Amino acid sequence: MVNISDIENFWTRGDIYSRVRQAMSAANLDNKNLDVEELFPIDQYHARGIAATIDLGKKMPISENQKILDIGCGLGGPARYYAKEFKCHITGIDITPSFIEIGNEFNRLTSMSSMIDLCLGNGEKLEFEDEVFDGAYSQHVTMNVSNRINFFSEAYRVLKKNSFFAFTEHGLGPKGDPIFPLPWADNSEMSFLLTPENTISILKDVGFIDIEIFETGDKYIQGYEKLIKGKTEERNPVLGIHVIGGPTMKERSSNSMQSIKENRTQPFEIICKK
Ligand SMILES: C[S@@+](CC[C@H](N)C(=O)[O-])C[C@H]1O[C@@H](n2cnc3c(N)ncnc32)[C@H](O)[C@@H]1O
Question: Whole-angstrom Cα distance, residue 117 to residue 182?
Fold first, then answer.
């Protein structure tokens, strides 16, 4: 079984603090007040970046001042976008300490600290009371989660009645056998993909209702093509997902794109209710 420190080492990839510091300095963004939007190239750590965050946001019924949970918040990029867009309060948890530290620094630089709390936590065992959140979401996290029943049950437990749960992931496609290394795992020991049907069945067993699923494969292929082409044309973009993901990001993105094209994986968004 994969342990939490392997997942954390995978995401950190060496000295992430230096990489971020150097990139911010090269982009002339260090130590000054920033707009949330200025960080989009570096803080949306998932396929399709801010476009995917905006798409998911359109499906989430968030109202002003609500308390929303982000499970696996990464550097807090989606949380900053949603907190600003919906004027809600977001609590983000993630198992990677450096992401939480950098994310809170990004909150400070963008003057978002009063709307967002980011802290260490594991989605399989949330440290919150029952029924405290008005909604929850999780972008591209579940591929690393071996026990989906625990993960979904914990999300369900901390949600108030009639609230929503939304998430995006790469599911297992009909052909199976994805091509490694991938953006979320270097090998099969860290990757726990389920078919969309299997995921829906677990959500139902946990108690979620009104489950809607949206396939996102074609959009993801286009997003990966743009990312890979961009990297070939502009040799050294200063800010980009490679700052966080390191030098293998292009190869991992290319494998992810090919896995979708060959029906080995099948990305989707899900929105459901408690
Ligand atoms: C692809 S990144 C997505 C980050 C963020 N959701 C975003 O979209 O920018 C996946 C994140 O999931 C986190 N993660 C993986 N397993 C987790 C778990 N069991 N509990 C909390 N976070 C987890 C990783 O540390 C990483 O930050």
Answer: 29
Q: Which two tokens stand for residue 147?
A: 């026990």
Q: State how far the alpha carbon of 19 is from the alpha carbons of 7, 25, 26, 200, 251, in Å.
A: 19, 10, 11, 39, 19
Range of the domain at 241: 4-273
Tell me the per-residue pLDDT of 170-227, one tens digit each, with 9 for 90 and over. Answer: 999 999 999 999 999 999 999 999 999 999 999 999 999 999 999 999 999 998 888 7
**CATH number of the domain within which 187 lies:** 3.40.50.150
Give the Å distance between the CA of 111 and the centre of ligand 1.
23
Cα–ligand 1 centroid distance for 95 (angstroms) = 7
| Domains in the chain, number | 1
The verdict on the CB of residue 259 being under 6 Å from ligand 1 is no
Distance 75 CA to ligand 1 centre (A): 9
What is the identity of the amino acid at 175?
A: K
Q: What is the pTM of this model?
A: 0.96
Token duo for residue 90? 């977001």
H or E element: which one contains 240?
none
74 touches ligand 1 (CB under 6 Å): yes
Size (the chain), residues: 274
Can you tell me which atom of ligand 1 is nearest the CA of 45? 9
